[in-house]
Amino acid sequence: MTFGNDLFTGRTVVIPGGTSGIGAATAERFAALGARVVCCGLGAAGGPRSERIESRDINVLQPGALDDFFASLNQIDVLVNCTGVSRDRDEWKKEKFDEVIAINLTSVMDCCRLGRSRMKSGSSIINIASMYSTFGAADRPGYSASKGAIVQLTKSLAQQFAAENIRVNAVAPGWIVTPLSRALFADDVVSAPIRNRIPAGRWGEAAEVADAIVFLSSEAARYITGVCLPVDGGYLTS
């Protein structure tokens, strides 16, 4: 998708979970469009690199970490909540299930709550849902439950924040090539049946999810709030 290189000039984009994967691609996209980008998450030293991107190492499970992070920010024009983990079959263990919910859902609500006072009329929040928001996953109950909840949280926040003209939307990525999925993608025995179900005929790229996030954050989507936009090459339709 083509956007003007100055589309977000003068705006501050904050991306919890922006140090890798879809979050990092989103940070790079906004920076290329002129925004100042502030990311936080684990592994900040290996995060995206640009004179417009600042990455801070933060563990969202550490008490007070997000409070301190948001207290350091004066302005937020776009908040993109990309923090998320999956623990696969370990999620059937209570401690792992609770951890996934805390990171994927509770920390997102914390970011929205903490960021709200730093957002003005016309600002935007984008949450990251998943194709698993639509159907369950036997091997990752915490992940699918948290991502389903993200859709409902997005709707609730959209209603609550509308009076302040702050839009809240979500994107639901499908099969996207990221550092976490690269091994699965490279295993043709596993990935071929997935690819064959995708009407677009291929896995998606993190940059394509970033483009959807940019759209929902832009004036082109000024009358859109409370939606969850699939970015999956048609996977959910097949």
From TrEMBL:
**Keywords of this protein's UniProt record, alphabetized?**
Oxidoreductase
What the record says about family reads: Belongs to the short-chain dehydrogenases/reductases (SDR) family.
Q: Which GO terms describe its molecular function?
A: oxidoreductase activity
**Enzyme superclass (EC):** oxidoreductase
EC number from the UniProt entry: 1.1.-.-
CDD domains xrefs: SDR_c
Write down the SUPFAM superfamilies for this protein, in alphabetical order.
Answer: NAD(P)-binding Rossmann-fold domains
* Annotated protein name in UniProt: SDR family oxidoreductase
| Pfam families documented for this protein | adh_short_C2
Q: Which InterPro entries match?
A: NAD(P)-bd_dom_sf (IPR036291), Sc_DH/Rdtase_CS (IPR020904), SDR_DHRS6-like (IPR051122), SDR_fam (IPR002347)
What's the domain of life for this entry? Answer: Bacteria
Coiled coil segments of this chain: none
